[in-house]
Amino acid sequence: MSRIIWKGAITFGLVNIPVVLRPASRSQTLDLDLLDVRDMAPVGYQRINKSTGKPIDKEHIVKGYQYAKDEYVLLNDEDFRQANVEATQTVDIVSFVDAESIPPYYFDTPYYLEPDKRGDRGYALLHATMRRTGRAALALVVLRNRQHLAAMLVHGDALVLNTMRFADEVLPISELRVPKASSAKGSGAHAREIEMATRLVEDMTEDWNPEQYRDTYRDDMMARIEAKIESGKTHQLTQPTEDEEAPQRGAKVIDMVALLRKSLGERGKDDEGKGRRRAKPAEEAEAAEETEADDGRASESRGRRKTPARHAAAKKTPPKQPPKRTTAKRTTAAKHAPAKAPAKSPATARKSAGTTRRKAA
Fold it and tell me: Which residue stretches does the UniProt record annotate as biased composition, category Low complexity (predicted)?
């Protein structure tokens, strides 16, 4: 657990919650020493008296405010505390705001707030209320002889105090030369580019997992240091190389769609090599159905290979044709056949037979 750097209380309205402040971040920079290249002796940060040019001990150093030329008022930690005792012992909440409305560039250093003796109940009350309302508390707090604006935020079961920069410490964005987000013409972003870029963003989206990220550059530097130790070149400075290409200057037309398409293709290759790390249940079910269908088709294919004659015969059987209409045939035949004589009545038939016999006699 990190050390306690401050003790006090959270106050808002009439509520007073005893808390302690612990650092929520730590530096992982390399610990380097300054050396005199002539004899490898360490070079320290000496405290020099500007009048005599001689170093002085830390115990003889005090703080002073210059109110006139060469005239100072001496100050120590007790002076800073008595200037405003309450301010140095409280996180004074002055208002609540929507947590998402605070621009990220205002945040500075995070700290954990932990309830002190008899502070559990008030701590839990404030935490539950802020969680329900979705608000962040803006507060004023004095740390290391300086007053800070701070944002108190809910994270998990804890309250986090993040010191902030005052408005006059933040440079206005209006001074930047940036494209207007509301104008596609000004930003140069076209609908097709935005669509493909959105696909790439969605493809790269994953759950927040900070443990998977680390300072790889520090690892590379440590590997280089160890290599110099193993090679016995600890006192040799590396000479600059000239094989690096100079940065290109001048305007260059970039096909953003082609770059995005290539990026999506590279992402696809990576996914094929290591598998999808995140599969949604619906996608898994669909993949399972497709696998079953593929297995069925494979089994059917194996069955066809085992009995080729039967399936070959089935293939040769012509498809059934719909029954032909006989009415159309009769009509066509009647059109080309000679006309038949109409049927004769019995009397007419007898008369014709008699006439025939008389002609024969």
Answer: 329-353
